Amino acid sequence: MTEELLKKLRAAVPSAIILTSDDDCTNYGMDWTRTPGKAGVVVLPSSTQDVSVVLRFCNENKIAVIPSGGRTGLAGGVTATRGELAINMSRMNRLDPVDLLGRTVRVQAGVTTQSLHEHCERAGLTWPIDLASKGTSQIGGNLATNAGGVRVIRYGMARRWVSAIQAVLISGEVIELNQGLEKNNTGYDLLQLLIGSEGTLAIITEATLKLTVPPIHSHVFFFSLSHYKALENLYEKVRRGPFTLTSFEFFSDKCLQKVEAKLQKKSRLEKPSRFYALIDVETTSENAQSKVDGWLEDLMADEIVVDGLIADASESQKEVWALRESITESLQMSGAVRKYDLCVPVKKAADFLDEAQALFEKLNLPIELYVFGHFGDGSPHLNFLNAQNLPIEDFHREVNRYESELYPLLKAYSGSVSAEHGVGILKKNWVLFSRTPQELRLYKAVKQVFDPNGILNPGKIID
Ligand SMILES: Cc1cc2nc3c(=O)[nH]c(=O)nc-3n(C[C@H](O)[C@H](O)[C@H](O)COP(=O)(O)OP(=O)(O)OC[C@H]3O[C@@H](n4cnc5c(N)ncnc54)[C@H](O)[C@@H]3O)c2cc1C
Prior knowledge:
Blueprint: H1 3-12, E1 17-19, H2 22-27, E2 41-44, H3 48-61, E3 65-68, E4 85-88, E5 104-108, H4 113-121, H5 139-144, H6 152-155, E6 162-168, E7 174-177, H7 190-194, E8 203-210, E9 217-225, H8 228-239, E10 244-252, H9 253-263, E11 275-283, H10 288-302, E12 307-311, H11 314-325, H12 327-332, E13 337-341, H13 349-363, E14 368-374, E15 379-385, H14 392-412, H15 431-434, H16 437-450
Parallel strand pairs: 2-4, 3-4
Antiparallel strand pairs: 1-2, 5-8, 6-7, 6-8, 9-11, 9-12, 10-11, 10-14, 13-15, 14-15
Flavin-adenine dinucleotide binds next to β3, α5, β8 and α12.
């Protein structure tokens, strides 16, 4: 941006903070994947009015703009590849009082997921979207990516838990969608269109979120298992268990080793194995315990699992969950990582994982594979680590060799290249694996209506 335009921008939004240092532009120009990027200028608005002025200014001056939240995204959704203006929502973090009757809460987009949880907990309610990045991710980012997380089996994705959105269009117009209504069948649902649009259609400034009651009693099971098919068998048992299932997560032994090294703590399982399942369930009464115990006895007798433990106390549950939630960070600390968040029909997940693993072994590449994720949603994350510290281009070439065989396999399983992280720039070339040409044509038409000048997060999802 020229000095003259920058001066005009500062005069137009005196209440916004505007940053131009190299460090800030680099920091705000990338997400968690550290895909190289650098913003031209960073704007931190203090209000919806500020966002409106900035977008109108950008549209009139044809300046590309990228909305961002906590920048924990894993698809390069906030990556500034062409010196775009980054507009970051962190300062817009107002939380209104919880509406106990309607079980909703109105918040600004820059509120972090965790501070929302803490706010609602004080009112005895919860927003049930839960993900390991919750300390940093923001509600605007959660909605713009339609975040999933570890409780999708029970509660679905973020889009189910929203009853109103305020957003700013590239023209600067402020739109209010759905006004918090529970029912509103009057035409197209633009609120749902904005959810998952990854900042390409409008900037979300506020939302009314639906809340629910947290579980009364929860139990966490942690099992070791020797193969993927055992995970599937265990899932079948869990589905018939005397409880309501909230999470069915899994990870490989290699992931556990990385986490144990990071946390400097061993898991409490006596018999390790190749895979682990972390299962979180809810029961509604104290006497459900005897039924749970009976179910566990049956399970151990069936010899599906190698070893197991049950965590009922909150502290020991946190300890087990920390093993799962620290995986992404432990890998990140170990070198460059390429991440694939795939989805296949859950009944085929074990077969798919067996084939994906066999493919990896057949190719004999100088990179390491770490598998974990949301087994209960059919949503494994495949992570490739540059463990041998290859020059970065070589690392990407090796991963690409695997990818070129993985995606046809995924297609054969009717899978998706992104279960929950979104397309951003990293999966843009592969959208047609998961969507039809007709869908892509409609995407482009929708983009044209919302953003005729192609100013808003250009090059993300589609060109
Ligand atoms: C350790 C770790 C664990 C994770 N686990 C999960 C998981 O289980 N499930 C899951 O779904 N994701 C997961 N993620 C990915 C990430 O946390 C989510 O995608 C999250 O919703 C992103 O929120 P954010 O505020 O960080 O968004 P950002 O990274 O800042 O942005 C993400 C996208 O949203 C757009 N955007 C951000 N704010 C707005 C706004 N106000 N208006 C319009 N567009 C906006 C951006 O332009 C970008 O395209 C994980 C990430 C990490 C690092």
